[in-house]
Amino acid sequence: MLKISNLNVSFGGVQALNLNEFHLNEKELRVIIGPNGAGKSTLMDVLCGKTKPAGGTATFKGENLIGKSEIEIVRMGVGRKFQKPSVFEGLSVFDNLMLGMKGRKDFLSAMFYKMTAEQREKIMATARRVNLHKEVNALAGALSHGQKQWLEIAIVLLQDPELMLIDEPAAGMSDAEAARTAELLCELSKENGVIVIEHDMHFVEQIAQDKVTVLVSGEILTEGSFEEVKNNLQVIDCYLGRQQAA
Ligand SMILES: Nc1ncnc2c1ncn2[C@@H]1O[C@H](COP(=O)(O)OP(=O)(O)OP(=O)(O)O)[C@@H](O)[C@H]1O
Ligand SMILES: [Mg+2]
Questions:
Q1: What totals of helices (H) and strands (E) does the chain contain, helices first?
Q2: pLDDT on residue 172
Q3: Which of 134, 136, 177, 182 has the smallest number of Cβ neighbours within 10 A?
Q4: Pocket mutation for ligand 1, best pick of 40, 42, 201 (most atoms within 8 Å of C-beta)
Q5: At how many degrees (to 10) do helices 145-157 and 175-188 cross?
């Protein structure tokens, strides 16, 4: 469903991404790992239209995403959860979800929008999927860090994406929350393509069903199963070894 060729991003002359080739199949769950500054989030920025690359193509279901606006890309079916949670803390979980469904850029009209029973049910069903059904009336600011991440995933889900880009979902989560998140991501990938960026190898092990891609200095170092990647000497040298030392 996604094919990337020769994707190139530089910031002030420094190359952040130089991706020759990357393929994602329908309903594949791909994990991308790699050291800080490897270009992982930059890749997602390009795919969601936030960053314009210097060159290259990213074809989603036959159409190039490059050059499209963020809104066009969401409409095409690509949803993205950012690395840092950015929910409206002073609003309830329900209202955050409602805004997510309507598009958060159109804040005022969304707040005064009269929802149909069907839309209300869709919000409740999505809240149940991410384990937040008991918290719908709570303020988003009162949620734990993990619950905020779930809320963000729910907001992405409400846009009915076919491809979900999820940046560091388990960061700051308790073990129990991370395990629930792993289950949720595996469930999502039964229906959607999912690309997950993650540092925590214990978490990666729980979700890696297909390939794991290792990104280093903007380039793919290797791709393979979790076991292959974990035991790859270059990966240990460039990334995993340093992680253990830190
Ligand atoms: N908007 C920007 N302006 C300038 N430089 C940037 C920008 N975004 C990213 N960079 C640089 O591009 C490189 C890749 O950064 P990126 O955030 O993609 O890394 P990452 O793999 O997501 O790292 P982390 O694991 O720490 O989140 C880094 O050197 C970073 O400093
Ligand atoms: Mg990042």
A1: 11, 10
A2: 82
A3: 134
A4: 42
A5: 10
pLDDT of 2 reads 98
CATH number at residue 40: 3.40.50.300
**Domains of the chain: total:** 1
Rounded distance from Cα 131 to ligand 1 centre (Å): 31
- What residues does the ion ligand 2 have nearby, CB within 5 Å? 40-41
**Ligand 1, atom 26, residue with closest C-alpha:** 36
pLDDT of residue 177: 92
Domain that holds residue 150: 2-245
Measured in Å, residue 10 CA sits from the centre of ligand 2 at 16
Produce one character per residue of 59-98: b if its CB has 16 or more CB atoms within 10 Å, e if not. ebeeeebbebeeeebbebbbbbbbeebebbeebbbbbbbb
Stated pTM of the model:
0.91
Q: Over the chain (246 residues), what is each successive 10-residue block's mean pLDDT? A: 97 94 96 95 96 97 95 93 82 92 61 77 95 96 92 92 94 90 94 94 92 96 96 89 68
Q: Are 107 and 99 in contact (CB under 8 A)?
A: yes
- The pLDDT value given to residue 238: 84
Nearest bound ligand to the CA of residue 32: 1
